[in-house]
Model the fold of this input.
Amino acid sequence: MSEQIDVLLYGLGAIGSFYAFILSRSDHVRLTVVARSNYDAVSANGITINSENHGKHTFRPYRVVRTPAEASPVDYIVCAHKAIDQEDVAAQLKPAVEDGRTTFVIIQNGVGNEVPFRNQFPRCFILTCVTWVGATQISPGIVNHTKSEDMQIGLYPNDRLDAAIESQRLGTFVNLLQHGKTRFKVLEDMQQQRWEKVVWNVAWNSITALTLVDTQTWLHSSTDAEPFTRRLMREVISVGRGCGVNLDDGLVDKLMDKINAMPGIGSSMQTDCKNGRPMEIDVILGFPVRKSKELGIPTPYMETLYLLLCAVDGRIRAAL
Done:
């Protein structure tokens, strides 16, 4: 790899900052970051990562901007922002997009995340990712990272474009991840990974956000709490299967065993709710609910939680 690779990273929170660090380890990357609330700190001091896996590092991106409007067309746009108002974000990114050149790398929770980008940029490539990184931005531009670090990455195929070039774009980005010494796996079927994670997120994000208690407190709150959670997970699995995703019946037991082996935890949605920030409702619950209606699959538990969260989110947005 000898050419200069221009990368724009949008969403410089904890996860975005972590992957900015990973990408910055390659001399071939010219990294521009869109920093909003942490713009002043990152512009003045760069980004500091305190990682249990990688040690402590401070680095300065090639360029720090407040909005994508300040950017020029790039080779890769890494979307690590919270998956809220995706259509609006895609529109904001237009100044950094060049048909046939730009590849989107979507690192977000949820399902259906890729659709707004494909609709607005049908001549662009898309890589889609599921990440499991334990990171927290403890103050603007300073991120603590635990040992939790993994990613699954693959293509969101585009039949309109050359498959060989599409694979090449994936390979180039994979090389950057390898150079950054992060853990990842390239998979053929990323939608299965997205839906498996959304089964987890539909349950724990929605329940912890609405109850404002942790997972163990919820599970021990009544004898019906665990059966409720299992039925909710099974609803999501049914919708995923209706969308052509091969989800196994044993996934519910696997996820419940995982949560029962952990201490009580909250969720990113609960944190947003407590702090009066808009929540990632649409890609976690909204998309599966809409698909369930299209497919005629009853999802009373998921639909109820979705409606309640929309009301809470509406209250939060009205107060901003």
The two ends are 46 Å apart (CA to CA). DSSP finds twelve helices and twelve strands in the chain.
